[in-house]
Amino acid sequence: MDFNSGGKKAIERLVEAYGFSTRQALCDHLGVSKSTMATRYMRDIFPADWVIRCSLETGVSLEWLTSGKGVLNQISTTELITLDSFDLHDGELINIQQRSISRELLPEILNQPYIVNDNYESYIISKEYNLVDGLWLISIDGQFSLRSVYKLPNNRIRVENEKYSFECGAADIEINNHIKGIIKRRV
């Protein structure tokens, strides 16, 4: 599938999946301007972020939304998993609601999974106690943040984000929330 085109047909399928009769109704639902919709439609830009959102909200198959193949049908509840969802705001996790997500979008092995939303990204998190290099939700002095963590010799770690990095003992911070997947939303 070529994701650099196919926007017109995908947008038409979105209108149908939501049960709207106009693209304007779709704009209102998605919270986007008519000009944003018109640009994607006229330039045939594939709306991947809208397609994923529609699938999550309606249960309509990703295959049908992206390609038009298959049938417009609801995902069965056995194919969905409901996870707690939190917003990360000023170092705190604020429980906003539960979200249902297709199992096919998740890694197979997750331990007590949940979702953390930060700006335009949603992170699929698994409770993990075996520290490996990667992206983690950590707590430093009770403040949560998303950071890259790397194991070093002598039970030490290196913690990084885009601006800062530091080294400390692995026991100096709380590290038990491994990020297993990221869903990015474009604006």
What would you say this structure looks like, in words?
The chain has two domains: 7-67, lambda repressor-like DNA-binding domains (434 Repressor (Amino-terminal Domain)); 78-184, Umud Fragment, subunit A (Ribbon). Helix content is 25%, strand content 38%. It has helices spanning 7-18, 23-30, 34-42, 48-58, 62-67, and strands spanning 80-89, 92-102, 114-118, 121-127, 134-140, 143-152, 156-160, 165-169, 174-184. A hairpin with a 3-residue loop joins strand 6 (143-152) and strand 7 (156-160). Helix 1 runs parallel beside helix 4. The model has no long low-confidence stretch (mean pLDDT 88).
In short:
This protein has 5 helices and 9 strands; from the N terminus they run αααααβββββββββ.
Please specify the SSE layout and strand pairing.
Elements: H1 7-18, H2 23-30, H3 34-42, H4 48-58, H5 62-67, E1 80-89, E2 92-102, E3 114-118, E4 121-127, E5 134-140, E6 143-152, E7 156-160, E8 165-169, E9 174-184
Parallel strand pairs: 1-3
Antiparallel strand pairs: 1-2, 3-4, 4-9, 5-6, 5-9, 6-7, 7-8
